[in-house]
Amino acid sequence: METSKNLELALKYLNKNFDRFVEELSDYAKIPSVSAKGFPPETLEASAQWTAKRMEQSGLENVEILRVKKAPPYIYGDWLHAKDAPTLLLYAHHDVQPPGRPQKWLSKPFEPQVRQGRLYGRGVVDDKAGGMMHLAALEAVLKTSGKLPLNIKFIVEGEEETGSHHLSEFLKKYQKQLQSDVMILTDTANLQEGTPSITYSLRGIVDACIEVRTLDHPVHSGMWGGPGRDALSVLIEILARLWKANGQIAIEGIYQDILPPSQEEKKALASLPFKEESFRQQLGLVPSMAFSGEKDYSVYERIWTRPTLSVLAIDAPRIQETTNQLVEWAQAKVSMRIVHGMDPQKSLKQLCDFLAKDPPLGAQVTVHPGAAGEAWHTKPQGPAFEAAQRALKKGYGQEAVLIGCGGSIPFVRPLTEAFGGIPALLIGLEDPLCQAHGENESLSLSDWKKGMDSAVHLYFEKFV
Ligand code: BES
Ligand code: MN
Ligand code: MN
Question: What pTM does this model have?
C-alpha cells in the first residue's frame, strides 16, 4: 500500500518538475565536456563538479569524485539505507564527443535549444540525458517519500567516448566500492522514438592506422609520374582490397569465430518492426544507393551480429593545396566493429596483417595497431530483465522490445564480470533521429519523460 502511494507521489513529482529538469539538462549540456585529445581537460572537471552537486541535490550521499592517474574524473554517489534490498548500480557518462563542423549546427552545440519536442545540443542524448534521467527519478522518490525501496550506487564516467582507457586501473581501485547485484546502463538506443528497448548485445571495436610511403619527397607528377608512384593511390589500392564484391570483408578467417545468434534470438530479430523506406531516410542514404554489407543478412543482423569495416579518415594533401606533385606519403585510419565470439586481439592482428601484406610495388607500409575492445552479449532473461520489461511498459505505455546494438560501451563487460556476472540492463534514449556524435545531436523530450517514469517504476520493481 505504502509502496504504491510512494510510487504515485514520485510520478506526480516528475510531472510537476519536468520543465525544470529540461532546464537543468540544458545547463549540464552547456559544459563542453569533450574528452577527445586536444580539448581542455578543465571542462571535464567542471562537468564532474556539476554532476556531483546534482547528485547531492537528488539526495544521494557519499558523493565524491573518483580519480585514477590522468583519467578524466568519475563521479560516485550512493543511497544505501534499504535493509535486505538489492543494490542497483547505475551508469552514465558525462564526457561528450567534439562538436564537429560549427556551420552545420542549426543552433550552437553548447547552447541547447528546444525545437519541436527535441532538445538539441552536443551530449544531450549521449549521454547527459542518461545520467540526468536517474538524477530526476531519484530526486522524485527521495523528495516525496524520503527513502528508496532499494540501494543505489551511481557512477558517472568521464572517458567513455575515448575508449575508457583507465577502466582496468579504475576497477582495481574501486571495485569493492561499486559492488552491486544488478547494473543499469543508460547509454543505448530505442529502436524507434516511443519504443522502449532493452539492449542485449554490443559490438566490439578494433582499429589501426596504415601509413604508406613511396618517395622520400614529393616530386613533379609530369616529370616523374610513370615509374614514380604517389603514396595516396597506393594507399587506396590497399584499402580497396578490404572488401569483396559481394559485400563481405576480404580478410581471410575474419568470420570464423563468430558465435551466431540462437534460433530464439533470430526469431526475435525477425519479429522486430522494420520499414525499409524510413530506415533509408533516417540513415540519410542517397536515393541511388543500395544497402551495403552481406545480402544474406537482414539490416538489423548486419548492424548487430556481423562485423563491418570502415575507413574513418585519410591524411593526404588538400585539393586546394595540390601542385601537380606525386604525394610521397599518406595515411588512413581503418576501423572494424566486431561481434560475439570474435577475439579483439586476434581480429586486430588479422586486420593489421592484411593491411601490411604484399604492398603494391613493394611500397613502404607501416601499420600501427590501435584499440581492441571486446563485444558483449547476454541472454535477456531472468528477474532483472522481467522487471525492466514491466517498468518500461508502464513508463512508455508500450511493450519493450529486445534489440542489439552496433556500437560499443567498454564499461559493460569488465564491470559485470568483476561482479560475478551480474545482470546488466542496457536502456537509453538514443533513437534513429538523435544524430549522436553528429551535428544537431538531439533528445526526444517525450521519451526522456517516459524514461524517467520507467526509472521510478524500475526502482519499485522486484529484480533479484
Ligand atoms: N552511447 C554510445 C554507444 C551506442 C552507440 C549506443 C550506438 C547506441 C547506439 C557510446 O557513447 C559510444 O559512442 N561508444 C563508442 C565506444 C568507443 C569509443 C570504444 C563507440 O561505439 O564508438
Ligand atoms: Mn554514450
Ligand atoms: Mn558516444
Answer: 0.96
